[in-house]
């Protein structure tokens, strides 16, 4: 199955290539046929182009051409970018410049009407900073004046445009500078208000001092805490010793010390007197009395001062204890005062720190805004300086390369014009050739012997039938007829059924070769398709055999010389007599009725196929035709082509449309041969020489 598909595909591609080659040859043939008209169209187009160019040049102002080159070297800056070269060209092409040019040069109405076409501003090739201004006119002086005036007007307009642009930008920057200065002033006022609010001028330095002071205070506090702890310890020890002695003893320590001293002194005197003197010795008594008196006074003093517990040892070191207690108390008091003072200072510093913590963020924000404003102001000042410098440089942005415009005369027929004329000629002649070839191929008719050569791959030309008005003698026509029959007989060796298809609008397909077959005594029969409605008129007196009506050389059936039916079978006149005797001998006619002359229905195809098989038993060649010429669009053509072994086409010069011929040629394949007879041929020399073969 795959091999069969591949083979069918290959056959289809081969057929398509053959068809394409045929059309290519047909196009070439048609071009050769119309070659003189195509050449004539080409020459007429060239001549028309030359005339138009001559008239156009005489009327045109484009006789002299002048140009000047300009350099565009603007000063670049980041603030206002320089105009691009295309923008500069746009400035030079402004309508205002042309109005100024008209006013300054006092141009005529004709010169005004073509002024825009006389000036061209374009960028120099492969250059980004150079452009050329070209002017054209009808005189050298006019061109120079035109270009020079346009250049100066263009430069002036550029300077005005660029200066205005820069000044607008400068004004906007100056307004921005005023806004920034006002904003800077408001920031300064806010900063001063902040200073007044917190009473601090330099918060960062103050914060550093606060941190430093806080460090010193922390160190002093730590040291003071150590001292205070030591003082408290010493005070506690002194206080313990101090409180161990009754308060009244401490209060009356001097008096008690006197009593103790007196008592000790009286006791020593008493003991001394007691040892030295007798009991009644007055000195002893005096000493005893004095001692007792002192003792009583001492006891009275203690009772009076509520001194209940007293030991004279309490008086030993009492002053030192009191002194140490006082000193420790004073030292502790001083340290506590110092601590309170330090804590007050720490609180003050802490309060200042809190104020600074609230102030510094706002102060830093204001400072940043101030720095930004100052920076922007500085940049704006520099920017304004650069813009002012650019404004002063604008007159130097565009420089003229040549002070004198170079001019040249423009030829009437330059190479470009000649090229355009010839291209136009080729284009018009090409359009004409395409139109005539397309029309001739699509809607034209068969051209004759020459065109038949291009179809040799699709049909075999076996002969020609010249037009009745052609310059042929009767003998030449007879020779051509016999030669055509001879060639036709040679090609019918293996063909039993032949379908005759007339494409020239004639009835030749019914009569050609009838006399020759009869004279050659070859068994042949012509089967004609007729509509069922005409059976009574055409075949009313004929013998019906099976599905068709039959007449053998006119011996059986209708009398073909009867004028009553002659118009139905006019093509058979002259062939109604012969030597044949009945069905199956000599030359015969068969009529096969069908319902539709454009297509055979299935039962009719089957009946026709059976008729053909029946006739094959009695005749060497069965020819199938119909009463009227075929329309190539009929399905009947395809059906009869498939039934028969070969198809004979009658193609008439200037009579067979190419569209009809193309549809019939699509029937060409390897199994069914296609023959052709050319009709209406008038080329006597080629017919006689046999060049059509």
Description:
This protein has helices at residues 2-33, 35-59, 85-92, 95-105, 109-113, 115-118, 140-198, 203-244, 247-251, 253-276, 282-304, 318-393, 415-443, 449-454, 474-490, 508-511, 514-519, 535-539, 602-616, 635-643, 658-665, 684-689, and strands spanning 64-72, 119-123, 130-137, 398-400, 406-409, 460-466, 497-502, 524-531, 543-545, 548-552, 587-594, 621-626, 646-652, 673-681. By secondary structure, the chain is α/β, with parallel strands linked by helices. The strands form two sheets. Strands 6-14-13-7-12-8-11-10-9 form a nine-stranded mixed sheet. Strands 1, 2, 3, 4 and 5 form a five-stranded antiparallel sheet that branches.
Key words describing this protein structure:
single chain, 693 residues, alpha/beta, nine-stranded mixed beta sheet, five-stranded antiparallel beta sheet, 14 strands, 60% helix, elongated
